[in-house]
Write a sequence for this structure.
């Protein structure tokens, strides 16, 4: 599923998306999300183990970060 970033909060630790979902980013990945900004396109991927990955489609190389839903 694709959506867009609404807000990046808490120095990249929390991401709110335009679809209404909110995500807590794995602490090891905040160096990527701290540079993300509103309107960038995000793809939400659910892994076979039930975990989620958010993929920023608007960065030079798509950034993938581990996330859990609030």
């Amino acid at each position: 599923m694709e959506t867009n970033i609404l807000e990046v909060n808490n120095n990249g630790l929390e991401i709110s998306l335009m679809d209404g979902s909110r995500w807590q980013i794995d602490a090891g990945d905040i160096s990527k999300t701290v540079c993300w900004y509103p309107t960038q396109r995000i793809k939400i991927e659910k892994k076979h183990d039930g975990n989620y990955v958010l993929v920023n489609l608007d960065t030079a190389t798509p950034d993938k970060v581990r996330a859990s839903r609030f």
